[in-house]
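Entry 14. Ran structure prediction on the chain below.
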Amino acid sequence: MANMTAEKMYKTVIAALDEREWKYEREDEKLRVTYKVGGDDLPMHFIMWVDEEHELVCLVSPMLVNFPEDKRVEGAIATCYVTNTLANGCFEYDLSDGQTVFRMANTYAGSDITTKVIHYMFSVAAKTVDDCNDKFFMLAKGMLSIDDFIGQ
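Output, structure tokens:
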């Protein structure tokens, strides 16, 4: 069972989702929710959880396509390039399987994170993923060169 602070944080995440009237799936024992958001081009999948040990609220969004072996170096370059432009959050890249994931976290240690902070995380994550997912997809599928990716 999670401690009371982690439970309170999880309830704040749930409250923020309910305020937006989004559909989501709960995994209460893991203090985790999953939800989807429709973007301008591709659907986006998000996982948000409370990390009790590190006192964090974490959010990830895996991209819908993995880079094939012949495009993995380009995937790494693109991921580094985009992450360098972000004010909050980052893209992680696994060279072994070509998977790209957006990640962000906020600590709740010694503070009282409100639903406003969770809404901020929802908004930043959705905008960042929506701005980038189609470009990562096109690069992985060979529809866009790395030079064009960086030039856009």
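DSSP finds four helices and six strands in the chain. Will compare against last week's run tomorrow.
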